[in-house]
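Hi support team,

I've been running sequence recovery on a batch of backbones for a student project. Most finish fine, but this one hangs at about 90% for roughly twenty minutes before it completes. I'm not sure whether the input is malformed or the queue is just slow. I've pasted the structure tokens below so you can try to reproduce it. Let me know if you need the job ID as well.

Thanks,
M.K.
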């Protein structure tokens, strides 16, 4: 199992002026330790379960561009972009730009969106759930068309109409930046994964047993069969809570958890870093866990 890193919190005791230097430290350290990718949330307000709504939250693609300039090898993505936040043509242009400026290291992480408060707060329309999923599928179709150099023609959907899907420069990743769809909905989300995506992301937060996760992967396998797609073509990623202080004290507990997730069928664990505050604990925990996770 390979490990990736998610940075969901930018709250630091030194204040907002410390966010940029600490992000650079975390990113370069994570790359040197062997994390395969770095992810940030794409939210406008901090979300429940991570912190108070008034805590710092950076815009996702600006942050990834900053991290691209500070790193050389790790891949970069949002976990995940709500489909409602940006017009799809602009979103694909942003992901393409990140891919070009990072030397072909962008992921395209996307989902149906859920946080109504930040939509209402900043004046972003928040359609009903059914419509958000329909918009998600159209956005995936637009992305694939814009990343197809042979197809610069129009796109005509129910919600989006593009007169020209021009996209220059094109992404460096081939055939395009890999697509990750976040979420675990069995009828819609996992079907879209099987049809369009290169990876799925499920969450292991708050679970006391793994039957639910195992069932979700079984559902994904069924959707792949229905779509005529190889299940093994989908990278299975899982979001795992990561408290460096706790992991430093009891690394085997986290290693055992990662081993159990690997046994279910997950290939990449995206470690959701509780806080960027303690670099020493992060480094110590990572050095203890990464080599053992690689053997899982």
């Amino acid at each position: 199992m390979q490990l990736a890193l998610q940075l969901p919190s930018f709250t630091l005791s030194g204040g907002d002026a410390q966010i940029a230097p600490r992000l650079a430290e975390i990113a370069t350290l994570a790359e040197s330790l062997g994390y395969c990718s770095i992810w940030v949330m794409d939210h406008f307000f901090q979300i429940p379960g991570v912190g108070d709504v008034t805590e710092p939250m950076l815009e996702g693609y600006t942050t990834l561009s900053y991290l691209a300039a500070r790193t050389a090898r790790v891949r970069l993505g949002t976990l995940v972009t709500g489909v409602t936040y940006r017009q799809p043509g602009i979103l694909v242009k942003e992901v393409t730009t990140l891919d070009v400026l990072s030397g072909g290291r962008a992921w395209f992480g996307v989902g149906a969106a859920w946080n109504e408060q930040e939509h209402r707060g900043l004046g972003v329309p928040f359609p009903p759930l059914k419509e958000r999923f329909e918009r998600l599928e159209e956005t995936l179709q637009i992305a694939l068309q814009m990343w197809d150099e042979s197809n610069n023609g129009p796109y005509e959907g129910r919600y989006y109409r593009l007169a020209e899907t021009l996209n220059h420069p094109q992404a460096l990743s081939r055939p395009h930046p890999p697509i990750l769809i976040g979420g675990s909905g069995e009828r819609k989300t996992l079907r879209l994964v099987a049809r369009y995506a290169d990876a799925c992301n499920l969450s292991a937060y708050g679970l006391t047993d793994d039957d639910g996760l195992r069932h979700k992967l079984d559902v994904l396998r069924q959707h792949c069969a229905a779509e005529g797609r190889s299940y093994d073509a989908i990278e299975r990623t899982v979001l795992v809570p990561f408290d460096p202080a706790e992991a430093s004290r009891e690394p085997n507990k986290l290693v055992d958890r990662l081993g159990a997730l690997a046994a279910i069928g997950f290939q990449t664990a995206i470690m959701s870093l509780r806080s960027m505050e303690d670099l020493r604990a992060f480094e110590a925990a990572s050095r203890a866990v990464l080599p053992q996770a690689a053997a899982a």
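--
Follow-up from support: It reproduced on our side and the slowdown came from queue contention, not your input. The first strand starts at residue 2 and ends at 7. No action needed from you.
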